[in-house]
Design a protein that fits this description.
The complex is a heterodimer of chains A (526) and B (325). Chain A contains 16 helices and 19 strands. Chain A is α+β, with helices and mostly antiparallel strands and 526 residues long. Chain B has a two-stranded antiparallel ribbon with strand order 1-2. The longest helix of chain B is centred in the N-terminal third of the chain and has 36 residues. In chain B, 38% of the residues are buried. Classes of the chains: A alpha+beta (526), B mainly alpha (325).
């Protein structure tokens, strides 16, 4: 007990000494689930990892790969990459970083109990050449290796062995030391962690990139505040300096408050509709022996019945960027030429439906999450009358995300005819959408393809994109795949939702398009 | 008496079995935890491997059997969401919940009983009418709205109190308390008022109703005829007899405050078991959901049991029927 009191007193003194001006306090909806970088693959946890841990490669502000724990790399042959490691890097506990840590971290992240193994799944093996040189061998030519390496986090071999945490915790097993403690090489180190209450970090004084640092804070306090109204209250009452996300309807409230502003930019995520294109008979039309969505004219008719401009203006209150493309801006392979939407045209829509043999329309259930994307349920509600206008009778099935994803994905045999999904290619490369959303037949494909869209031409192109090492050629293949998919009406893109953060005027931050607060880009002005 | 207690305990065990089955059945139908555990880049094969690892590919009966077997051996499992053993998690969150509900219960009793007595005795006074009128607000306005109104008024407008969280806590062994720091005490004010309001209004009205009943009964009339003082009639003869149902309801309210502070804890980001439960529901964290509901059931069974025993102490009529309950 005396120790505990002493710790509290000492904590108080440290707080007083560090000064408030450089403390950055921020809040979001949930807490990071664990400090173990190989354990949870979840949005908020992932957004935190780069504050503490680093990979050989990291993203700059524009989501382009740049050197981090490696200083340079080159391809020895199409499947072998040699990385020169940075010298003089230390972990937070003072241990120097060497090739052994990379070899160890690959084994740990790719192990069976790791939840982050998908980010290193194209790596076959890692070889230490000397203390500061390693070689990765990939399973095939891998044009997105560098991007995946931004999510391959390096832990200290010595520290993990000392604390018996050489394997990440897996479900149904015991927690390990790395769940609540960290030892990364990153710009910030954790000094206090109370799950679901607060996580306090201070700048790491021996960070290798200190001479070029872009942050101007000494300390950061993160608090999860689940309720949107409470989070807003914490911002406006001055208890936090930044709160995110802010609901579109609360934006005027923040903007009207003196000393506060709203930070907005399109998120790296496209919200779209998917349609069942594999069943011979629609789930909603038993006995009919028909599945309208197998006909491209019907898919196009539904697309042109949707007034996306109304959704942007009314439902999203302007907080969306309408798009006709399934991958968002800032993604490798994105091409603005494909962005334009087909026009909103209910008359054309009715005509297409009549041509396809549905002059009276047809019934369909729209599966929709109600707690995942900005105003997701409201978007779906607005679709009901829009589609009714052309005769498509929509029954809305809005439910919590866990049930929604369970219903539309493979585990429930893609039990859906029409669904809403918002997908983010987190490696900022088109492949991250092409493979899981737009193909069925390739190795590892189809995880998010709820309607089992599959076009032989797209499958072939994506297969090429996967192994093409020439960036120009690769961009052309991506363009072609996206073009075919667009003309196919394989999915019906709606918009990129905006990132909406509320902040004090004194906060200067570069918002990451993945809706992440990166502490290394945060400045506090006096 | 002994057989009465034994019957009670057996009934309690039955309740726990039913709650366990229901909790497991409901929580396994809330969706697929695997999609929440694995990132979006995981392939179909990786998802299926995880499902096998968790035993989710097995039929319901097998899953429930395994779960029951683990619980009987005292293994509550590890949280899918946080990777921390559930027992440890619940113990960590218990202090926050206990302090919040104890403070709310304290407010409920401190205000509910005197106000109830006052409104029963001074039925016609203006103050009684005001009290009864405002108690309707406590009963009818949803908790989250009251919480948000309090936050808006005291945290945003007046800036007297923090809007959320538990403030600075002090560790006393495994227990953490916010009662020893000023920020901890200040943080406790709004959530405990929010949580207390409903039970306060309920208790107030119950005390008033019971007391009115008793004051109209024959023995009070006789007491009055005997010329006893009003004070003695109201408290010795009136209030004592109105006490039994009040104790039952107050005790069950305590259980309710402890187990179902979910809304209040969420609005105020109070790091107790209610918040943990809500997050578990959103994530389909089956081990946490089941354990929490079981714990709540255990609590209610225990409280009921204690209430039964206290009846025997307080009411001679219950004592006189041998073995009766």
């Amino acid at each position: 007990m005396r120790g505990a009191l002493a710790a509290v007193l000492l904590g108080g003194i440290l707080v007083a000494a560090s000064g408030r001006a450089q403390t950055f306090r921020y809040a979001s909806t949930g807490d990071l689930l664990t400090l173990d970088p190989h354990s949870a693959d979840e949005a908020l946890s992932n957004s935190f990892k780069n504050n503490i841990y680093e990979g050989l490669v990291r993203f700059n502000e524009k989501l382009e790969p740049e050197p981090a724990l490696a200083v340079s790399w080159k391809a020895v042959n199409p499947t072998t990459w040699r990385f020169q490691l940075r010298k003089g890097v230390t972990f937070h506990d003072g241990t120097p970083f060497t090739a052994d840590d990379v070899v160890f971290s690959y084994a740990r992240q790719s192990s069976k109990s790791s939840l982050m193994s998908s980010h290193v799944s194209t790596i076959k093996s890692v070889k230490k050449i000397d203390d500061y040189t390693i070689e990765y061998e990939t399973t095939g030519p891998d044009p997105i290796l560098l991007r995946n390496l931004t999510e391959h986090f390096i832990m200290s071999k010595k520290w993990c062995e000392q604390h018996a945490t050489t394997q990440p915790v897996a479900a149904l097993k015991e927690e390990t030391h790395a769940t609540r403690n960290e030892n990364g090489t990153g710009p910030f180190q954790v000094v206090e962690r109370v799950p679901d209450t607060r996580t306090v970090l201070v700048a790491f004084p021996k960070w290798w990139d200190l001479p070029n640092k872009k942050y101007a804070i000494t300390r950061a306090e993160f608090r999860p505040i689940a309720n949107a109204a409470t989070r807003l209250a914490a911002l406006i009452s001055g208890e936090v300096d930044l709160a995110y996300p802010v609901a579109p309807q609360d934006v005027p409230r923040v903007e009207s408050q003196k000393g506060f502003r709203v930070i907005k930019r399109p998120e790296l995520r496209v919200v779209f509709l998917g349609m069942d294109q594999w069943r011979d008979e629609s789930l909603d039309m038993p006995g009919s022996k028909k599945n309208p969505f197998k006909d491209v004219r019907v898919r196009r008719a539904v697309y042109q019945a949707i007034d996306e401009e109304a959704i942007r203006a009314k439902v999203m209150r302007g907080m969306a960027a309408p798009t006709g493309l399934i991958i968002p801006e800032n993604t490798e392979g994105y091409d603005a030429k494909l962005r334009e939407r087909y026009p909103y045209d209910p008359a054309a829509s009715r005509k297409l439906l009549a041509e396809a043999g549905y002059p009276e329309g047809f019934p369909v259930t729209l599966d929709c999450p109600n707690d995942r994307y900005i105003n997701d349920e409201a978007i779906c509600q607005s679709l009901v009358p829009m589609l009714a206008r052309v005769g498509v009778k929509v029954t809305l099935n809005a439910q919590t995300k866990s049930r929604h994803f369970d219903k539309i994905l493979k585990a429930s045999n893609n039990n859906t005819s029409l669904f809403l999904l918002g997908f983010s290619p987190e490696t900022a490369d088109a492949m991250a959408t092409l493979l899981p959303v737009m193909t069925m037949k390739l190795d590892g494909s189809g995880a998010w393809n709820g309607g089992r869209y599959s076009n032989p031409k797209v499958e072939e192109l994506v297969g090429q994109v996967r192994v093409e090492m020439d960036p120009e050629k690769r961009r052309k293949q991506i363009f072609e795949a996206l073009r075919v998919h667009k003309e196919d009406f394989g999915h019906l893109p709606l918009h990129e939702q905006l990132i909406i953060w509320g902040a004090r005027d004194t906060v200067d931050v570069v918002p990451d398009p993945r809706d992440r607060v990166q502490l290394r880009f945060v400045k506090m002005r006096q | 008496m002994i057989s009465g207690i034994l019957t009670r305990l057996l009934q309690g065990l039955g309740v726990l079995l039913v709650v366990g089955l229901l909790a497991f059945a409901v929580s396994t139908r809330m969706g697929d935890p695997v999609n929440n555990m694995l990132g979006q880049d995981a392939t179909i094969e990786q998802r299926e491997a995880m499902r096998r690892e968790l035993g989710l590919d097995q039929p319901f009966v097998v899953q429930y059997g395994r779960y029951l077997g683990r619980v009987v051996r005292g293994q509550l499992g590890v949280s899918y969401r946080l990777g921390i053993p559930v027992g440890e998690l619940l113990v960590e969150r218990l202090p926050a919940s206990v302090e919040l509900s104890a403070m709310a219960m304290f407010l409920t009793l401190l205000l509910g009983v005197p106000l109830g007595i006052y409104t029963a005795i001074r039925r016609e006074s203006v103050l009684s009418k005001v009290i009864l009128g405002s108690s309707l607000v406590g009963l009818s306005v949803p908790t989250f709205l009251i919480g948000l109104l309090l936050i808006f008024l005291f945290a945003v407008q007046l800036q007297w109190l923090p809007s959320s969280g538990r403030g600075q806590v002090v560790a006393l062994g495994p227990w953490t308390t916010g009662l020893l720091t000023s920020s901890g005490l200040r943080s406790l004010v709004l959530p405990s008022i929010t949580l207390a309001l409903f039970s306060l209004a309920l208790l107030l009205r119950l005390v008033r109703g019971e007391l009115l009943d008793v004051l109209h009964s024959d023995h009070v009339r006789f007491a009055r005829a005997r010329g006893l003082s009003e004070r003695s009639i109201n408290f010795r003869h009136g209030f004592r007899n109105a006490l039994l149902p009040v104790i039952t309801v107050a005790a069950l309210q305590l259980g309710g405050l402890l187990a179902f502070a979910v809304v209040t804890e969420t609005v105020f980001q109070w790091p107790g078991m209610g918040l943990l439960f809500l997050q578990a529901v959103q994530f389909v964290d089956v081990p946490v959901i089941c354990s929490y509901l079981l714990l709540a059931a255990v609590m209610f069974v225990l409280i009921n049991f204690i209430v039964d025993v206290s009846y025997r102490v307080l009411d001679p009529r219950v004592r006189s029927t041998p073995g009766g309950s």
